[in-house]
Structures are given as structure tokens and as C-alpha cells.
Design brief:
Shape: globular
Strand order of the largest sheet: 4-3-2-1-10-11
Number of strands: 11
Oligomer: single chain
Helix content: 10-25%
Number of helices: 5
Order of helices and strands: EHEHEHHEEEHEEEEE
Strand content: 15-25%
Length: 230
């Protein structure tokens, strides 16, 4: 594998306008093979599965949010039929709520079934991607915080690292130690910052950075690409 696309948190149905069109354009521009498309997680928001207070002005119910998510995801399934995704905190919201209520996993539907996902979509806690020159480790990013979390993750893992989760802390850090060279990259997100699901962050000093990441040169070079609506 020489190059790969890393899609950031989309949190469907609250994704940025034309997020899919943007990702397709990046994949085409960088000639990313169909089996080299990755998603760092939080592919859906599952707003009503979260623990926080819900907006009285919310435009969805739990059922209508899921229906709209499934409808939108069908276009993503068509565009990227072999997506590899990281298990994430938003993706597991309903499962965690069920567990907290004492409901055993055997009573829960499979996540892929709930989303109507195709066979080619696969979820794992993390992915160790064997690229041509250097491996890349992808996970969602839970457990890390702060503006230089991507640097610390690369130090901790001892590998090139890609993650998302921290919407306002996108960036790349290159590290050289006695153990060699590596880099860490946070790919930001692809959310609609004005959606009611993100009202909690409206007064934050640092706003979400929208874009995706591409890794080229067989794993040597990470690139951040800012979101464009066109």
C-alpha cells in the first residue's frame, strides 16, 4: 500500500454539507485505491444515545435520527464499499447505555445491522496498516486530549499514528528519537458546526477544524487537507 485516505469524524446525520463529495474528490485527486479508505470513527453521532441533556428544540427523535443516518450512509456505502473504521465513543453510545441499564449484549442487534452497512465495512478498535515503507496505526483517539495529543500518541505507540476525536486539535507532529522517525496526525472532523447536536461547543475558544488526512509515500508522509464545499 502506497497511499491511503483517512476520513475524519462525520457524525452523520450532522455532517458538513457536501462532506461525501469532498471525500470522493480527495480520493480521486490522490488516486486512493478503494481498499485503502479508512475512517477514524464517529461515523454517526447517535445524539440520543449520549449521556448529556438533550435540546428541547431537537429536530429528531431517536428513531428519525437513525432513519436519516441510514439514508445518508447508503451514499457512503456506494462511494466507499470497502471502508475500514475505528470503533468510537459515538458509535458505541447506545451499546454503552444498554450495558449501563443491565441489558446483556446478546439482546442487542449487531451494529452493522443497525446501520444497514455492507459486508465491506469493517470495524476494529484499531488498525495496524502495513504500508509499503512504514506502518501506520489508526484508532479513534479516546484517552487523549490537548492540542498536541497526536504527538503524544506517536510517542506512546512508537509508530506513525492517525486519529480524530478531538475536533479542534487537528495537526501533524514529526518526531525523531533514538528509536527512529515517526509522526502523529489528528485529522479533525467533518461536522456541521452549526447543528444543534454541537451546541455544547458554540462558546468554545477553538472551533472545529474540518478536513481529512492522506498518507502517501508508502507511509512516510502525512498530509492534512482542509474541507472545501465545492
Amino acid at each position: 500500500m502506497r497511499r491511503a485516505l483517512f476520513i475524519s469524524d462525520t457524525q452523520i446525520p450532522f455532517e458538513a454539507d457536501h462532506a461525501l463529495r469532498f471525500c470522493k474528490a480527495v480520493a480521486k485527486e490522490y488516486r486512493i485505491p478503494s481498499d485503502c479508505i479508512y475512517h477514524v470513527g464517529d461515523e454517526v453521532d447517535q445524539y440520543f444515545g449520549g449521556q448529556w441533556d438533550k435540546s428541547p428544540d431537537a429536530l429528531h427523535t431517536p428513531s428519525s435520527e437513525l432513519r436519516e443516518s441510514r439514508d445518508k450512509l447508503r451514499q457512503w456505502y456506494k462511494a466507499f464499499p470497502k471502508m475500514k473504521l475505528a470503533v468510537s465513543n459515538h458509535g458505541t453510545r447506545w451499546a454503552r447505555k444498554a450495558s449501563a441499564s443491565g441489558i446483556p449484549a446478546q439482546f442487542m442487534r449487531d451494529y452493522k445491522e443497525i446501520l444497514g452497512a455492507p459486508i465491506g465495512w469493517q470495524w476494529k478498535d484499531s488498525w495496524l496498516i502495513k504500508m509499503q515503507r512504514q506502518p501506520v496505526f489508526m484508532f479513534h483517539g479516546v484517552g487523549y486530549s490537548g492540542s498536541t495529543a497526536y504527538r503524544q500518541a506517536a510517542v506512546d505507540k512508537g509508530l506513525n499514528v492517525v486519529f480524530g476525536h478531538l475536533h479542534s486539535n487537528a495537526g501533524i507532529a514529526h518526531i525523531v528519537t533514538d528509536n527512529g522517525r515517526r509522526w502523529g496526525m489528528n485529522v479533525g472532523c467533518l461536522i456541521d458546526q452549526d447543528a444543534y447536536a454541537f451546541a455544547y461547543s458554540q462558546n468554545s475558544k477553538f472551533k472545529s477544524w474540518l478536513g481529512v488526512g492522506v498518507v502517501v509515500d508508502g507511509g512516510l508522509t502525512p498530509i492534512l487537507l482542509p474541507y472545501e464545499r465545492g
